[in-house]
Amino acid sequence: MGILEIQNLSMRFGGLTAVSDFSLKLEKGDLIGLIGPNGSGKTTVFNMISGFYRPTAGAIRFEGREIAGLRPDKVAKCGIARIFQGNRLFRGLTVLDNVMAGHRLRLRSSPLAAVLGTPGYSRQEQEAYRYSMWLLESLALAETAQEQAGSLPHGVQRRIEVARALATKPKLLLLDEPAAGMSVEERTSLMDFILRLRKDFDLTILLIEHTMQVVMGICQRILVLDYGLIIADGTPDQIRSDPKVIEAYLGAGKHA
Q1: Predicted pLDDT of residue 124
Q2: Are the C-beta atoms of residues 217 and 191 closer than 8 Å to each other?
Q3: Cβ–Cβ under 8 Å, residues 36 and 224
Q4: Structural domains of the chain in order of their starting residue, each with its CATH number
Q5: SS3 (DSSP) at 1
Q6: Of 61, 4, 49, residue with least CA distance to 204
């Protein structure tokens, strides 16, 4: 049994089919890429996995449990964290506060306990602080802890988003275009960062990315979507030379 098993997943919006008959199996420790032209259905797949969309048809099983249709917070508590395509940091808060916000998903105290400042809630806040600082130190971000998140360079902000996701203690990490807006040097650094994340935090990673340098450089296997359908599934070398991919994703063969 894989950590994530998706079977015949479809999503329709009225008369429009955004994703059709999508199936995928991830084993623990996999680093898989999902690519395709704009509008091909990639983010719709992420929205269904993470609970933002309820699939029209199909099944999503995480560690053997059916999660299709669960609320996003319930999906996150199961062990799935997501980095969104755009920056979703609390820009006016410190880096540490952003990461602690992720860890609060795991708090067991009630809102009333937080308001009253009970000893149990205080202990959990201390735990959140210690764990968040440990994450920042592990990701070489400790020196930014008291900086305002929105004041930092784009590449650093993306890493902070990853730290906040890791604070939820996930087993599966969904990365939606993490390299968007980065320079060549930042992308190279990001590739090493993602590989280290998978090893150091024992993660399974599903990655959407338009930057071929990244997806071809680190993914073991790549799926290609076009008009909501999987048109190719293989190693980077297989995908790079697939005529259907060249036509649909990279353009006509003569220009590829």
Answers
A1: 77
A2: yes
A3: yes
A4: 4-79+170-255 (3.40.50.300), 90-153 (no CATH)
A5: coil
A6: 4
SS3 67: coil
Q: Is the pLDDT of residue 256 over 70?
A: no
Indicate the DSSP class of residue 143: G
209: nearest Cα among 40, 80, 33, 84: 33
Quick: pLDDT tens for 205-253. Answer: 999 998 999 999 999 999 999 999 999 999 999 999 999 998 886 565 4
Question: For residue range 101-125, what is the model confidence (pLDDT) as tens digits?
Answer: 998 776 665 565 555 667 766 777 8
pLDDT computed for residue 45 by the predictor: 97
Q: Residue 58 pLDDT > 80, yes or no?
A: yes
Q: Which of 160, 228, 211, 170 is nearest to 28 (CA)?
A: 170
Neighbours of 138 (CB within 10 A): 15
Long-range pairs, 249-254, Cβ under 8 A, ≥24? 249/35, 249/36, 249/37, 249/224
What are the residues whose beta carbons fall under 8 Å from the beta carbon of 50, sequence distance 6 or more?
72, 75, 76, 80, 82, 174
Distance CA 11, CA 138 (A): 38
Nearest residue to 29 via CA among 202, 200, 168: 202
How many C-beta atoms surround the C-beta of residue 47 within 10 A? Answer: 21
Contact 38, 247 (CB under 8 A): no
Q: What angle do CA 50, 56, 58 make, to 5 degrees?
A: 75
